[in-house]
Fold this protein.
Amino acid sequence: MNPTQDFMLADVPLQSRFLLGTAGYPSPQVLREAIEASGAQVVTLGLRRQLAGSGGDNGFVDIIKASGARLLPNTAGCRTAREAVTLAHMARELLDTHWIKLEVVGDEHTLQPDPWELTDAAAQLVKDGFEVFPYCTDDLVSAQRLIDAGCRILMPWGAPIGSGQGLLNPWALRTLRARLPGITLIIDAGIGVPSHATQAMELGFDAVLLNSAVAQAADPVGMARAFRLAIEAGRLGSASGLLAAQDMAVASTPVAGRPFDL
Amino acid sequence: MSEPSEASVNVNGETRTLRDETTLAELLVSLGHEPESVAVAVNGDFVPRAIRGKHVLRNGDRISCFKPIVGG
């Protein structure tokens, strides 16, 4: 594994493994600076119903489009496959991209994805020519069904969206990585602090997507840079061969027994 | 000669009365939307931009217009 090699995301070579969300920033200027500091080459955005004459967005979307990053629109708010498929088609027309972050939520409190609706929507969208990035849980069999539907990228949660709890089930995430070696795996949701992102990369994940931990920081620009470094560190560590943990001490200094025979 | 009939439709939650045979493209113009600034669904089904001019709205239709926003 060469850590300096481009990251291939849906056949697109990228240098950054950091995908950044664009919601909740204090101003368009801070968002612009945070995208720049993050080094992210993919940013997410959403769609919302509009009324003529309703207020604008204060320039946030213009900033996102001007960033030069690839756009990854989402289907946030959808509860059924039908809603998500419709919204995905709208996003493709509006933003001229066939990439879609597929979100179909099944529970209001945890915002946990609905695996059945998600898989149905993914299958339809793959047939319709989309590159589907499904936001899913860490359940292996659900992940395999998404792959059966034609997904080659999966975005399992670390923890519920916006909770900042980090990687709640490292065993399940390690299992996904081990069982799905050819699939691009991106941790999406639940990341709270930079070390969570490092841990995800050390588990062998291909990239990390996050939003709230940067947007809600006291200094979003500084936090964007912190996550950039954390993701790079985790990737470099993973690529360089991590030391296996052991229960007992293993002396590192090559001494010959005790220093004195007293 | 009979009076032209009308259609009552719902646009993003608001009721509007349209003259009969109004197309989706005509509705969007009347709402002040630039054609490329919104994506539209009628009764939950996406209507591509290219066919809005041929899509005649009917009484009871529910029209949803979407624009990009920030998102995670």
Q: What stands out?
A: Chain A has a mean pLDDT of 94. Strands of chain A lie at 7-9, 12-14, 18-20, 42-49, 70-73, 99-102, 131-136, 153-156, 184-188, 207-210. The first strand of chain A starts at residue 7 and ends at 9. Residues 197 and 231 of chain A are 6 Å apart (CA to CA).
